[in-house]
């Protein structure tokens, strides 16, 4: 198994996002197709394991010991389901991933067999924070969930990040997030 450039999902989905529906202001203006000088916003590919993808994720949580084989197997599983939209920003000059966020589409029997989006693993590498990349990823994945006909999109976050997500129209729900953790 050799890491390659095959995208996890169709890159056109990102290119076709109707950016006029974006509700957040960007100064200077950036967009999914123009994320900034020397940057590209695109689906994850397995070659990103050699471009510091895990280094970025490691700034969010424990990533564990993952071999290239483990990574490729997981990628292939996600690709097959067509429900995982792991999106990255690459700095083309450095050949490094500098930000990532994931949209997962969950299928329901309720609400007329609707779909629900979940946003997970939002992280911008510390040296690139404050350059609007977090905002760009959140706007893009929120619009993508709408385009994919999700009836809602949700995420869990720390209280200190609530104000960040409110920018995109997310509101705190009166439900309590509960978990049963089996290992760390
Ligand atoms: C949260 C995070 C993704 C934001 O990304 P970023 O690239 O630094 O932020 P951006 O430059 O895109 O956005 C900047 C805007 O968001 C605001 N902002 C950034 N982080 C914020 C926070 N934690 N709370 C409130 N507002 C925040 C800024 O004030 C700025 O507002 P403005 O556009 O009105 O001036 C980034 O700081 C990060 O990766 N943090 C560590 C991992 C993490 O906590 N992830 C979220 C998991 S729920």
From TrEMBL:
Annotated TM spans: none
Pathway linked to the protein: Nucleotide-sugar biosynthesis; UDP-N-acetyl-alpha-D-glucosamine biosynthesis; N-acetyl-alpha-D-glucosamine 1-phosphate from alpha-D-glucosamine 6-phosphate (route I): step 1/2
Keywords assigned: Acyltransferase, Endosome, Golgi apparatus, Membrane, Transferase
Organism: Engystomops pustulosus (Tungara frog)
Protein name per UniProt: Glucosamine 6-phosphate N-acetyltransferase
GO cellular component annotations of the record: endosome membrane; Golgi membrane
GO molecular function: glucosamine 6-phosphate N-acetyltransferase activity
Top EC class for this record: transferase
Family: Belongs to the acetyltransferase family. GNA1 subfamily.
EC number: 2.3.1.4
Listed SUPFAM superfamilies: Acyl-CoA N-acyltransferases (Nat) (SSF55729)
Domain N-acetyltransferase intervals: 39-184
GO biological process per UniProt: UDP-N-acetylglucosamine biosynthetic process
Quaternary structure, from the entry: Homodimer.
Record field: catalytic activity: D-glucosamine 6-phosphate + acetyl-CoA = N-acetyl-D-glucosamine 6-phosphate + CoA + H(+)
Topology in membrane: Peripheral membrane protein
Subcellular location: Endosome membrane; Golgi apparatus membrane
């Amino acid at each position: 198994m050799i890491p390659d450039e095959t995208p996890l999902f169709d890159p056109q989905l990102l290119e076709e996002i109707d950016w006029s529906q974006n509700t957040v202001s960007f100064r200077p203006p950036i967009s999914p197709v123009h994320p900034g000088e020397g940057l590209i916003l695109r689906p994850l590919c397995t070659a990103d394991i050699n471009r510091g993808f895990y280094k970025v994720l490691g700034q969010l949580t424990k990533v564990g010991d993952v071999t290239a084989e483990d990574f490729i197997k997981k990628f292939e599983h996600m690709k097959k389901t067509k429900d995982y939209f792991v999106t990255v920003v690459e700095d083309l000059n450095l050949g490094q991933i500098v930000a990532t966020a994931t949209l997962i589409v969950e299928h329901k029997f309720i609400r007329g067999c609707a779909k629900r989006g979940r946003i997970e693993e939002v992280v911008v590498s510390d040296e690139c924070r404050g350059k609007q990349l977090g905002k760009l990823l959140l706007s893009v994945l929120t619009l993508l969930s709408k385009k994919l006909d999700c009836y809602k999109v949700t995420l869990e976050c720390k209280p200190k990040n609530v104000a960040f997500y409110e920018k995109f129209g997310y509101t705190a729900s009166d439900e309590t997030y509960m978990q049963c953790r089996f290992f760390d």
